[in-house]
Amino acid sequence: MKTKITLLALALLSITTAFGQKKTNGNVYIEHPAINVVDEFVKASVAGDSLKMASYITEDFKAYWGTTNVPDTKGLDKAAFIRNQLLYFNALDYYSVTPFPDSYPDAIEYKKDNKDQEVWVQTWVELNGVHKRTGVKIDASAHRLYKLTEDNKINTIINYANGTVLDEIRASFVDRKNGTIYNHHDNINTIRKMIYAMEKGDMEKAYSFYEEDATFGDLSSFKNRGISLADQKVQDKAFLEKFDLVTIEMSGYPDYLEYEMDDSRAVLSWWNFHLVRKSDKMAIVLPVFFIDDFNKDGKIIRESAYYNERLLEQPFKVASN
């Protein structure tokens, strides 16, 4: 028994030792001449200084995209990479490259397989700007690896970034339709029936046009956004205890938008709510703009309302001279 316990203890010790071993493979620096070179190179690229950029790069330089799905990619040579970087300078207003919040670059000197004494610098940055032609705002994060020679020349760059942030720019160079606008549609009919049921005090019928899990947003108040149908019913009841709803008139005409992207659909409608405040019999006209999102079954799944809440609190006064 003692022998078995001893063997078990030795086995556990060997496993612990195997998993607990550490072996260094160089040094990591928070300050290093290579970091300074990378910083100056980035400043030159933001300034569009191609000659200064070239001075930091070796003649056999290569740049790669770490997220590419192209096997055996050849990367970009020195001239092609500089042209690529100048695209950002020439195409963007307010162009900047800044450290990602709470990050800092590292310089790594590996021992193994590093006979040429090369240094890797890794950075985490935010690229910002507004595309001059399309107005698309870029606010993108990127991770870059720079390999520098012993004399602090950049020999390789591997860039990791989300290339989809540029898709909106590419798509914005041409006009593109995104669905159809209707001025007559069954979903518009639904909105009219819902509004006029509310006008007649038939709240049960008005609520029947919503899905049970519909959400509501009162965009005049941060407190009432994304609330449930049950909560909206409570708010409607409280509102009608303070105001008499005399009539509701349509302003202009509703639009029904059936979007191609995201397969979404919404009715935009404008109304004037004629109210009487019960506390002082003050007549109030409240303009309201609704955006109602529909599902494929013709039920309202989300509603956003825009109006001036102050009109409910005090009468409109004409300024005196």
Automatic annotation (TrEMBL):
Keywords, alphabetical: Signal
Position of the signal peptide: 1-20
Protein name: Nuclear transport factor 2 family protein
Protein's organism: Arenibacter certesii
